[in-house]
């Protein structure tokens, strides 16, 4: 599903964020991306959905060589990649329903299909009763569930989550993990960048540890390995 071959990323200010990464992530895997702050995790993730481009090396996502992708083709790539951010990034003046529907409206889906898929996504995240609410009328956990629903409404092949439990209380965080596992069990490849030691050590998955822009560990059922 995702392959990086000798990938390097140096920013214009000279910061070397990624230094010669080689990695393969198969379809249907659930992978934690861990490491100290500033280790290169965010750059690693952003290169997968072409928010950042490598200085050199090859990245292939679901059979597409990103180095050969024209700018006008990037939106098509992102239709197959769901992205969930720590700070939700919901549109404040749109309802829950409208926030999720927006992802389908931009690709000109029909109204009946939009309604069907939005309600299916809301059902999955247990928020059908909040469809007409505005984001600021929801709890943090509910807002994160909306952002997950928006990310999966297009039935993506890959779901990338960047600190999805970072701003949540422990009970809510475990609920989000249950949801991510359910999505993964339906066949979606899930990548989760996290600093949550307890979650990583309790829900055992593959762990890729990045340090100084390099793969420090790659373990099938790994542990967090850092002080939380």
TrEMBL record:
GO biological process: cell division
NCBIfam families attached to this UniProt entry: FtsE
Domain ABC transporter: residue ranges: 2-228
The protein, known as: Cell division ATP-binding protein FtsE
Cross-referenced SMART domains: AAA
GO cellular component, one term: plasma membrane
Subcellular location: Cell membrane
Family to which the UniProt record says this protein belongs: Belongs to the ABC transporter superfamily.
Transmembrane segments: none
Broad class of where this protein is predominantly found: membrane
One function term, GO molecular function aspect: ATP hydrolysis activity
InterPro entries in the record: AAA+_ATPase, ABC_transporter-like_ATP-bd, ABC_transporter-like_CS, ABC_transpr_LolD-like, Cell_div_FtsE, P-loop_NTPase
Species for this entry: Exobacillus caeni
Role played: Part of the ABC transporter FtsEX involved in cellular division.
Keywords of this entry: ATP-binding, Cell cycle, Cell division, Cell membrane, Membrane, Nucleotide-binding, Transport
């Amino acid at each position: 599903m995702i392959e990086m071959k000798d990938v390097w990323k140096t920013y214009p200010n000279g910061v070397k964020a990624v230094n010669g990464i080689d990695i393969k992530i198969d379809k249907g895997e659930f992978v934690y991306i861990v490491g100290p702050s500033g280790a290169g995790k965010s750059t690693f993730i952003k290169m997968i959905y072409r928010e950042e481009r490598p200085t050199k090396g090859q990245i292939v996502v679901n059979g597409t060589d990103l180095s050969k992708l024209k700018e006008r083709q990037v939106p098509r790539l992102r239709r197959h990649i769901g992205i969930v951010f720590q700070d939700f990034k919901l549109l404040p003046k749109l309802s829950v329903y409208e926030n999720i529907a927006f992802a389908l409206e931009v690709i000109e889906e029909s109204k009946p299909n939009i309604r069907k898929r939005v309600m299916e996504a809301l059902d999955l995240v247990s928020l059908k009763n909040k469809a007409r609410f505005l984001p600021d009328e929801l709890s943090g956990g509910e807002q994160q569930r909306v952002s997950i629903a928006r990310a999966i409404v297009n039935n993506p092949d890959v779901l990338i989550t960047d600190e999805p439990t970072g701003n949540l209380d422990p009970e809510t965080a475990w609920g989000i993990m249950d949801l991510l596992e359910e999505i993964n069990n339906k066949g979606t490849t899930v990548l989760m960048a996290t600093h949550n030691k307890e979650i990583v050590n309790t829900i055992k998955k593959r762990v890729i540890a990045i340090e100084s822009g390099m793969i420090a560990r790659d373990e099938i059922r790994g542990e967090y390995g850092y002080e939380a």
